[in-house]
Design goal:
Order of helices and strands: EHHHHEHEHHEEHHEHHEHHEEE
Largest sheet: 5 strands, mixed
Strand content: 15-25%
Radius of gyration: 19 Å
Structural class: alpha/beta
CATH topology: Purple Acid Phosphatase, chain A, domain 2
Oligomer: single chain
Distance between the termini: 37 Å
CATH architecture: 4-Layer Sandwich
C-alpha cells in the first residue's frame, strides 16, 4: 500500500440561522434555579464556550486549510442541538444538514462520517430539559444520510466507524424518554451485533483504527467477545466528544470514580462513564478535539493520520487557534 493520509475532525457544532435565532443563552434560559443558572453561565463563559453559536468560521477555516488527503472522517456532532432533542428538532437538523453539505461538497467520496450524541439529543445541563428522541435516529439515517457503522480496508489497516450512543444505551437511560426505552434497547442490541460483524474476519496481521465519538461506548464494546479478542490489534481509537485534551486528561485521572446520582442527569451520565473509564486503555484512545476547543484555552483543531505498510502510524494535531 502506498502511504495514505486521513484527516479527522470532530464536534463541529455548526449553528444554522434557525438555531442562532434562539440566542446564545438558550441553555441557561431553560434552568429554573438561579444558582444552577449562574454555575452554567460561569462554566460557559470561562471554561467551555461563551457563545456556542459563534464558531461556524472554524469549519470554513478547516475546509480552506485542510491538507491534501486521501480520506476525511467527521467524527460526530454536527449541530448545536439547541432544542436538546437532537436532529428531530428542525432547527438542529437544518444546522447539521448545512454542515454536512459543506463537507460533502468539499470532499465528496473521500468523506466518511460517524454519529455523535447530539444527533440524538441529551438532557440539558442544569435543567434536565430534552433527551434522546428515537425519531432523531430515523432523521439521522434517512434525512442526514449518516450510516450507523462502516468498514474500510487500506492495506494492513481496517478502519471501522460506529455509533457510540447506540453502543452505550444502557448508560444513557437517564436521557431517554420512558416510552422509548424499549426502542433504544433494541437498537443497542442490534448495533452491538452490527459492530461485532465488522470485526469478523480481520486477519492477525491487520491493524484496526476505530472511530467512536463518545468513549462511554468503549466498556460496552469490551463486553463483546468478537471485539475483545482483537484488542491487541487495535492501533488507535479516535474519539471526540470531550472537545479538549485538557478535559481528556482530567477524565483519565478520574477513571474509576463512583457514580454520583443525586446532582442531575448530566452529572450522573458523566460520572457513570468515568467509573468505567479504565476500560479505555486497551482501545489506545486518542482525542480529536473539537474545531473550536474551549473558551479557556482556545485549543481547537483537527488530526491527521499517515498510514503505511512499512512504518508506524503517524498522528499530527493541527491547531485552529482563535
Amino acid at each position: 500500500m502506498a502511504r495514505q493520509r486521513l484527516v479527522i475532525l470532530s464536534d463541529i457544532h455548526y449553528a444554522g440561522a434557525a438555531e442562532q435565532a434562539r440566542g446564545s443563552d438558550y441553555e441557561s434560559r431553560a434552568i429554573n434555579s438561579p444558582g444552577q443558572r449562574l454555575l452554567v453561565r460561569l462554566w460557559r463563559r470561562h471554561i467551555w464556550l461563551r457563545n456556542p453559536f459563534a464558531h461556524n468560521h472554524q469549519l470554513d477555516r478547516f475546509l480552506a486549510e485542510c491538507p491534501e488527503t486521501d480520506f476525511v472522517v467527521a467524527n460526530g456532532d454536527y449541530s448545536c442541538d439547541s432544542g436538546f432533542i437532537g436532529v428531530s428538532d428542525s432547527a438542529a437538523c437544518a444546522s447539521a444538514m448545512e454542515c454536512l453539505d459543506k463537507l460533502r461538497t468539499r470532499f465528496d467520496s473521500q468523506l466518511r462520517t460517524t454519529i455523535g450524541d447530539h444527533e440524538f439529543g441529551k438532557k440539558s445541563m442544569g435543567s434536565g430539559v430534552g433527551g434522546m428522541k428515537f425519531a432523531s435516529l430515523q432523521v439521522t439515517k434517512e434525512t442526514l444520510n449518516l450510516p450507523t457503522s462502516w468498514r474500510m480496508e487500506l492495506g494492513r489497516y481496517v478502519l471501522i466507524g460506529m455509533t457510540s450512543s447506540l453502543a452505550a444505551v444502557p448508560s444513557l437511560i437517564g436521557d431517554q424518554f420512558l416510552e422509548e426505552r424499549a426502542d433504544w434497547l433494541a437498537a443497542h442490541q442490534d448495533h452491538l451485533a452490527e459492530v461485532s460483524s465488522l470485526f469478523a474476519g480481520i486477519n492477525s496481521n491487520q491493524r484496526i483504527i476505530l472511530f467512536c465519538h463518545d468513549p462511554t461506548a468503549l466498556p460496552f464494546l469490551w463486553e463483546v467477545e468478537a471485539i475483545r479478542k482483537l484488542a491487541s490489534q487495535i492501533e488507535r481509537t479516535i474519539i471526540g466528544h470531550l472537545h479538549s485534551n485538557l478535559i481528556f486528561r482530567q477524565a483519565k485521572l478520574m477513571a474509576g470514580i463512583p457514580p454520583i446520582r443525586f446532582l442531575g442527569p448530566t452529572v450522573t451520565r458523566n460520572t457513570q462513564a468515568l467509573n468505567r473509564a479504565r476500560v479505555w486503555k486497551p482501545f489506545r484512545v486518542q482525542l480529536c478535539p473539537s474545531l473550536a476547543g474551549t473558551q479557556l484555552l482556545r485549543d481547537g483543531g483537527y488530526l491527521s493520520l499517515e498510514l503505511a505498510e512499512d512504518a508506524p502510524l503517524k498522528t499530527q494535531f493541527h491547531g485552529l487557534p482563535w
